[in-house]
Amino acid sequence: MRFPASTSVLIVGAGPVGLTLSVLLSEHGVRHLLVEAHPGTSHHPKARGVSARSMEIFRRCGLEADIRRAGLPASQIFFYRGRSLVDPDFVRTGLPDGPAQGAERTPSPGLICPQNALEALLLRRARQLAPDGVRFATRLLSFSQDGDGVHAVVEETNTGQRHAVRADWLVGCDGASSGVRSGAGIAMEGPTGLGHFLSIRFEAPLGDVVAERASASYFLTEPGRGGFLAVDNDRHWIYQHPFDPQRDDIADLMSDQLQLAQLVREAAGLPNLEVTVQDTMTWRMDAQLAETYRRSRVLIAGDAAHVIPPTGGHGMNTGIGDADNLAWKLAAVTAGTAGQALLDTYESERRPVARQVIDLSLANSRARTGYRIDDELLLTAAYRSTAVIADTGEPPRPPLDPEREHPGGGPGARLPHLRLPDAAPIASTLDLTDRGFTLLTHTGDTAWQRQVDTARAAGLPVALRSLADPATASAWDDGAWTTAFNLPATAAVLVRPDTHIAWQAPNPPADDTELLDALHRILSSQQPRRPRQPPGQYERADGTILEERSWLWQGHAGPQGWQAAWTRTRDLLAPVVGDDRFGMEGDPFRGKIADGAAGLATAFYLLADGCGPQVPHVRRAQVEELMRPGPGQSDGDVVQRWEELLQALGHDPDADNDPVSKRWRILRTDYGQEDDPTVIGEVLIRQGYGLLEGLATVLTIMRQPF
Fold this sequence. Notes:
Blueprint: E1 6-12, H1 16-27, E2 32-35, E3 49-50, H2 52-60, H3 64-70, E4 78-82, E5 91-94, H4 98-105, E6 111-112, H5 115-129, E7 134-135, E8 138-146, E9 149-156, E10 162-172, H6 179-183, E11 188-189, E12 195-203, E13 217-220, E14 227-230, E15 236-242, H7 250-254, H8 257-268, E16 276-285, E17 288-290, E18 294-295, E19 298-300, E20 306-307, H9 315-335, H10 344-366, E21 437-441, H11 446-457, E22 462-466, H12 478-485, E23 492-495, E24 501-505, H13 514-523, E25 537-539, E26 545-547, H14 560-577, H15 588-607, H16 620-627, H17 635-648, H18 659-667, E27 672-673, E28 685-686, H19 691-701
Parallel strand pairs: 1-2, 1-10, 2-7, 4-13, 10-19, 21-22
Antiparallel strand pairs: 3-6, 4-5, 8-9, 9-10, 11-17, 12-15, 12-16, 13-14, 14-15, 17-20, 18-19, 21-23, 23-24, 25-26, 27-28
């Protein structure tokens, strides 16, 4: 089989995330190559929980039915707690809301399917779509990148033959020990070694033993016992045995089949159980997150980007969500319909999700009396980025909503599942979406068709679907639409290829280019710019002209060094965010950029000792050192140190007539409002993220080194 010399996307790692990305890229028509060092897919069941959100993704790929056939029946999705498998006082619980309520939120409830079975199905689909696109026994040896792409060297491990591959983009889906991540110089943050486990895959006739208590997972309450994971609730099982690497000789244990079988018997509470050990593996519980998901032409996904404790079952599913988010963006960029800045939104959307999932999973791991298994948690993900045009009046909130406090289908959220009438040929609103963008309406107003026609004439992939279309056989009243979207029946919602809502409008705009303009913004693509307002002003959507308070502070007042610091900040960030007005309040992503820009300017000012001529000579490493807490210090100590340096330069933090101090007071406040009688127009509420998070964001998205 000939090895390709070039490709659009080179994927490293053929686990569930890499294979899902391969399938989705093929669905989008993107040429790619996937290489995997191992000779084939996993033999070990590993992760087993496939969440509702992952099943919705697989539904779009035509895999849902096959995966359901390979998984445990819904009647066995329970969680067992007892001293052993035969404890008469066991407790058995199901998912918190039950299947009836779950069916109202998704057409594709989650299930238990062993990872080895899932990978086999994904591989079959990947090869159906790209017969030569997946190469096993092929490892990545090295790579380098320039402004035009990535130059990689791979090796076929069976023959030792090496090949040079040029790719536009490299995606590391190669697990927690990712070579792509380390090769790109991306660090991981967070604790390691939270637990160590020996995973024993075995056969034993346990079907009759658990017949009346069949569950997906069997948590053993006896100290040091771990738990059992059902593969088929009959003969095939996994036993997870905790161990102490400082105390236990795990290598000797793994080589002793008799002792391994005895561990299984003791944990099961069945001293005469016939056990056949098939294989073993060890794993370590970590809770880590990559500092960034992108380094120029290199991106990471799945365990390469986040290592999530298994308590909750969200690790693999978070990675599958990464692939879904990244695939359509790579497709748009490689097709030329989107600017490369769209790929920055992969991190700004997915990294906060992983951060929250890690925190929830850590809390689960510390729970003494069990924890909530939330199969539908990832359905609640709501994104905030430049790939979403959101209501600027909403305060920022975490991307996931574990308590379901924010229902509804607003911008950034997943398109709500609404079950279509029985006579309809499709079952869900989610089935109305297209591989490109979909403008979904209730009434089928012809004005929306004109919007779509204008966008399509500009070469942008968007389809119009209406719930009033005879093809859906819908006879809904306006109430169903209003309840789901909190919008009138005249409205439309623009749905991205990953089924998240990108934009909405309550009525058809008079201007037929409104949808086109929205798509250009979402895709970070070129578009005609509107005339700029006079310096220090900007125009709201309703036409109101507001004074931009940060204009007064960003190099338009203050000492020479402060002005020079802002000039350099604008020069570095303008190519990324599109303009030099980093204080347009309201949008949380803009708020983060505003804080990051102010933080970078302040760092330049401090490191140059307030001297304008020295500002251009400040290097990135100096800024990063200024951000770093000292031994035993917290982020609060860093902020205090910055304030002391400002005071040393003669700035009183409480002075009202000092533009440097005024900007610092807003920057050091996590969320606040500042009234200023010199600013004309309404008071703007800052929706920023504070000094260090904002600064970390702008350092991540910055395109050029300094």
